Structures are given as structure tokens and as C-alpha cells.
Amino acid sequence: MSTDTPNVYLDNGDSTPVFREVVDAMIPYFTEKFGNPASLHKLGLEAEETMDEARASLAGSLGCKPEELYFTSGATEANNLALNGLRLERPDKKHVIVSPIEHSSVLNVVKRWQKEGWVELTELKVDGEGFVDPDSLREAIREDTLLVSIIHANNEIGVVQNLEELGAICREHNVPLHSDMVQTLGKIPFTLNELPVDLASFNAHKTHGPKGIGVMFVRKGLKVRRIFEGAPQEKGVRPGTENVPGAVGFAKAVELSLKNCDEATQKIEKLAARLKEGLLAIPHVRWNGPEIGPNRVPGNLNVTFRYIEGEAILMMMNMKGVFVSSGSACSSRSLVPSHVLTSIGLFHEEAHGSIRYTLSRLNTEEDVDYALEVTRETVDKLRAMTAFIPEEHSERESDHATTFYKKK
Ligand code: PLP
């Protein structure tokens, strides 16, 4: 890559640049205020107080009680702890329900349980845009259902589920609802106290905070057992020395993200509409997921460029300084087609030709215009090397997302 190649980062669904104010807030906790909250001297007590403040600040931002939050190393751990911790508390419950478009840190947990014979697993149906069918949830719940897990906003296609409706169904049957809310934090405001969600997972690095810190929410009254042993940090539920700078940075990042959330969303949606228009003007492109608007997390765009490979597109765009992803970070290093894209009806070759662009409030119109120019050039070059491209819409192309289920 030449030194004057621009760096246009459109992969904010994978990670985001940390706000300068967040870095500034964290620095003292690496240098002067580096104490371990477990120590009984002044530095330790100060660190303990800092953890309490960060927890209270996050609880204020999320709309829950501080004692309902448990710090973890990130959302992967929060998802694993919430699911496994609940199963250990309720070993008599032998059935779980998930959406088929969960992140691997949920899906792989329940698939492993199923493989090891601990539970029966029901995967709900989603429609062509990725919305969970509430009737399929109602029908799936059983007497012995341990939990339902439904991702709030999907990381690949941005679809935002109606947690009010889905959670109300779970409440009717007294079954806890867990939600991976990583992608909505700081982008779509919510109040946990008002949502019928009993367990939830979050991290900092998708919302301009540091990597390596997350939080698990467990509604008061519900019990989750620790999954590894150690000292009694986080009320014994998550042993291990606390990441004090991380907690400070996490709380600050969420506070800042929510402060200007409406303004940021307007800016991001405008950029997204500009990018979408340019992308759909390219021939043989399929739009994946819901329309831009309240049913899609701000800044997420996912398209299929038919007859070419997503990995090749990504690599050529990378050479020109435009950074995107082909599916989610976790599936982008494997040749297995994205389970999310196949769940909404894409053929395998279409899933392989898909690219995700994720914008943040820090992107500009110039970024979008440059990304479009590079995308067009890349697609033209790759298609010029492709043996077969039909003149017209082919039978091999799945229809543009069709919607079967009722939306909010
Ligand atoms: N859940 C979702 C929806 C994600 O997008 C990610 C990030 O890749 C994770 C969970 C995992 O989060 P972490 O990187 O904090 O482990």
C-alpha cells in the first residue's frame, strides 16, 4: 500500500476507534492509580471506589441497577457466562431456544450443549430480512425451557429484533430471555428496566471504548453461577482481578456515545443512504437485511455482489485503503458461508460474495465517496475475470429479501 493511500475504515461493526476523551480518562489508572481493588491499602481502596463509580455510571446509561452488572473481559465471556451460569443453576431444564442468527459466542455454546446431550435445541425461524417469527417462539416454549436467547441487533445484517414483543412472550411463560446487545449499545437508546430482558451482554470496543472489557446484566432475582474458580470478585460470579482502566473507559465511552446519540444517528443514516444508493447502482447487487431505518442498526450495510468472491473484493479494497468485512469477523477467516446470510435465504455462492460496510459517527462523506469509487473499480475488475455473468436477472439469484413475518 503506498504511503498516500487513504485509510477509510468502514468496519466499525468489528471494532471502533477509541474516543480521545476515553483514552484520557483511562490513563491515570495505568500510571498513578494502578491499585488492585482487592488490596486493603489506599491504592486498593481507591481502585475499588473507581470500580463502583464505573459500575454506577454504566448502570445509569443502561437503565438498570449497579448490582445487576458484572464486569467481564468482553461480550464473548458475558454470553458464555450468562448461558452456562444459568444452566448450572437450573440443571433440571433441558431445552433452549435461540435465533439462528446469533453470534458464535451464543450459538456455539448451545450447539455444544446439544452435542453433549445436555439439552434439546430449538432454532427459531427468521424471515428474509432476519426478523424472528414471534409465533415460532410461542410454539417452541416448553415446560422445561431453560432460556431463550435472541440477539438485539445482528452484527452482519443489522436487523433489530422487537425485544418488547419477544420478551413479553417469554414473560408469559416465565422463561428468561437473554439478549446479546453488543451492536445496539450507544446506537439505539434503551432502558433495561423497561425491557422484558433478563440477561444481556455488552462490550466497550464496539462503541468507541477499549477492547477487553464487557459487562453481563442479570436481572435482580435471577441467579447465575460462576463458570470458573478464583477469588470472590464481582460477587463471586466472575473471579479475576478487575480491569479498572477498562471499566473507566467503558463507562466513559457509553456516556459519550449516548450523549449525542440522536445527532450521530442522523449523520450516520445520511451517510448510509448515500452509500446504499451508490452500491445498488452497481449491477447484480443484492441488498441483505431490512431497509435503513428503525429496524436496522445505524451504519450497517450488507450487500452481495453476485458472481464474485467477497474475500477477493475485501482484499482488493484493502489494497486501496478501504477496510470492510466479508460477513462477521468470526466467519470472515473461514470458507464456511455465513450462517446469518444462509438463514435469510441466500445461496452459498451469494453468501460468499457478500460485503459488510459499517459506518460510525467519525466517518465522512469523503469516506463514503472514496469507498464507492473503490468498490465500483474492484467489482468491475473482478467481474472482468469471471467466466459467466448473465445479461438479465438469473434463476440462480435468490429474490430480493422477502418478508414473511410481521414487523414492529
Ligand atoms: N456479540 C456480537 C454481536 C458481536 O458483534 C461481537 C463481536 O465480535 C461479540 C459478541 C464478541 O464480543 P467481544 O469481542 O467483546 O468478545
- Uncertain stretches of 5 or more adjacent residues: 400-408
What characteristic shape results from the CA principal axes?
A: globular
Strand line-up in the sheet with most strands: 2-8-7-6-5-3-4
Order of helices and strands: EHHEHEHEHEHEEEHHEEHEHHEH
> Whole-number average pLDDT?
93
Share of helical residues:
25-40%
Structural class: alpha/beta
Query: How much beta, percentage-wise?
Result: 5-15%
How many β strands by DSSP?
A: 12
Q: What is the distance, rounded to the nearest whole angstrom, between the alpha carbons of the first and last residues?
A: 46 Å
Distinct small molecules: pyridoxal-5'-phosphate
* Contiguous helical run count: 12
Q: For the report, how would you describe the main beta sheet?
A: 7 strands, mixed
Cα radius of gyration in angstroms: 22 Å
List the helices and strands and how they pair.
Blueprint: E1 8-9, H1 20-26, H2 42-62, E2 69-72, H3 75-89, E3 95-98, H4 104-115, E4 120-123, H5 134-140, E5 145-149, H6 163-172, E6 177-180, E7 199-203, E8 214-218, H7 244-259, H8 261-280, E9 285-287, E10 300-305, H9 310-319, E11 322-323, H10 339-343, H11 348-352, E12 354-358, H12 365-384
Parallel strand pairs: 1-11, 3-4, 3-5, 5-6, 6-7
Antiparallel strand pairs: 2-8, 7-8, 9-10, 10-12
Pyridoxal-5'-phosphate (PLP) binds at residues 74-76, 103, 105, 151, 155, 180, 182-183, 203, 214, 329.
